[in-house]
């Protein structure tokens, strides 16, 4: 009997727990019955913080970013990858600079020109005709010019030569007779006959030379052949240029100035042009140091020509090459000297530089700058002293979005 009581009590307890479990499950189903569980809940998109003073997230800490105020956040690792270089600005008194158009010319005391003095046919010299770039010495025979005469001129010359031959024969016999009678004739008469005979011989030699002798074309100076317009057998007119010789170590620069006062206000001058790099697609600026020689006092093409002499080491330039002449005057202005690579042109034609304001922040500043020399520019406004201006890699910073 006792065993049956225990079994009944256990069955009642099991029924109670089952009912309690069903009741709990029903409440849960009722709480979530109106919700759609077929889609995943949307999460709010994280908006990047682009405020000037905001710190980049850990995910963007290794990428350059453009902030809302236009400045750039560039991590140190990116600065090294872009090879950025900066220069601490220092205010100084800098000379005013004027830019003029100029060209390379040959030094008239170290260059020469070989021209035909008369019509003729060109013949090669002892070592052949010189070629471009060949070095020649002063007095060297470059070619021969054989005179070319018309039929009428040649007939007249031959007629003159025949007349001289007859006169020469008469003079020769006359000298022989006078020498035989030298004891009976005055000495002056014998000498006069002999002088006439010698004069006729020289006259005959000169006429024969005009008919057949070639003229030697000689190099007037030592240097390098820069112009060669000669071919063997070429028929030339008088004053036709065959060769031009220059000394590459002695060149000059001619510039045109539109202010006559400038000739008395030149302190220093340099020349610059774009030189094509062999190993890169960009052009590299090259420069020459110039010494002022003098300026003309007569206008030419509404300008005054200024003459400069190239100094320093020889530079590979060509005569006639167009260049920019940077003239530093004696007047001074206050500014900051920076390399040419620091200043870039904006789309509107304005000049700007990148300033390194903080460890990982760069700001673009519009500036007013003018050329100082072939390698530097002078910034007169837009930056302050003791600021770090980017001198290398500024074009790469402008591409950061």
From TrEMBL:
Keywords: Signal, Transport. Residues 32-56 are annotated as: Disordered. GO terms for biological process: copper ion export; plasma membrane copper ion transport. GO terms for cellular component: membrane; outer membrane-bounded periplasmic space. One of its GO terms (molecular function) is transition metal ion binding. Pfam families: RND-MFP_C (PF25967). Residues 1-31 form the signal peptide. Residues 338-393 form the Multidrug resistance protein MdtA-like C-terminal permuted SH3 domain. The keyword Nucleotide-binding does not apply. Residues 43-56 have a biased composition (Low complexity). It comes from the Bacteria. Belongs to the membrane fusion protein (MFP) (TC 8.A.1) family. PANTHER family: CATION EFFLUX SYSTEM PROTEIN CUSB. This is Efflux RND transporter periplasmic adaptor subunit. It comes from Undibacterium fentianense.
């Amino acid at each position: 009997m006792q065993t049956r009581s225990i079994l009944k009590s256990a069955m009642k307890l099991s029924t109670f727990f089952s009912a309690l479990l069903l009741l709990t499950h029903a409440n849960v189903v009722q709480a979530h019955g109106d919700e759609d569980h077929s889609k995943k809940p949307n999460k709010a998109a994280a908006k990047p913080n682009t405020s000037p003073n905001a710190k980049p997230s850990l995910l963007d800490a290794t990428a350059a970013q453009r902030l809302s105020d236009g400045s750039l956040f560039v991590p140190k690792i990116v600065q090294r990858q872009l090879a950025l270089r900066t220069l601490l600005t220092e205010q100084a008194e800098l000379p005013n600079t004027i830019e003029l158009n100029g060209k390379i010319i040959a030094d008239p005391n170290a260059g020469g020109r070989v021209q035909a003095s008369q019509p003729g046919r060109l013949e090669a010299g002892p070592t052949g005709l010189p070629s471009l770039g060949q070095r020649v010495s002063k007095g060297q025979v470059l070619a021969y010019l054989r005179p070319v005469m018309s039929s009428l001129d040649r007939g007249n010359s031959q007629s003159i030569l025949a007349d001289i031959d007859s006169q020469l024969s008469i003079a020769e016999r006359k000298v022989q007779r006078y020498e035989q009678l030298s004891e009976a004739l005055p000495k002056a008469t014998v000498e006069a006959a002999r002088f006439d005979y010698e004069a006729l011989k020289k006259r005959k030699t000169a006429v024969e030379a005009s008919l057949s002798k070639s003229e030697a074309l000689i190099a007037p100076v030592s240097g390098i052949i820069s112009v060669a317009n000669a071919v063997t057998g070429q028929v030339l007119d008088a004053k036709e240029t065959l060769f031009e010789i220059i000394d590459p170590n002695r060149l000059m620069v001619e510039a045109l100035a539109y202010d006559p006062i400038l000739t008395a206000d030149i302190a220093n001058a340099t020349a610059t042009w774009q030189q094509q790099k062999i190993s890169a697609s960009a052009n590299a600026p090259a420069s020459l140091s110039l010494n002022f020689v003098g300026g003309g006092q007569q206008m030419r093409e509404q300008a005054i020509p200024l003459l400069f002499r190239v100094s320093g080491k020889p530079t590979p330039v060509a005569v006639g090459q167009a260049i920019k002449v940077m003239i530093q005057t004696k007047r001074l202005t206050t500014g900051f000297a920076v390399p040419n690579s620091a200043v870039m042109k904006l789309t509107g034609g304005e000049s700007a530089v990148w300033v390194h304001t903080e460890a990982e922040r760069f700001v673009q500043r519009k500036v007013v700058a003018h050329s100082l020399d072939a390698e530097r520019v002078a910034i007169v406004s837009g930056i302050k002293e003791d600021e770090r201006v980017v001198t290398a890699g500024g074009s790469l910073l402008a591409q950061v979005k």
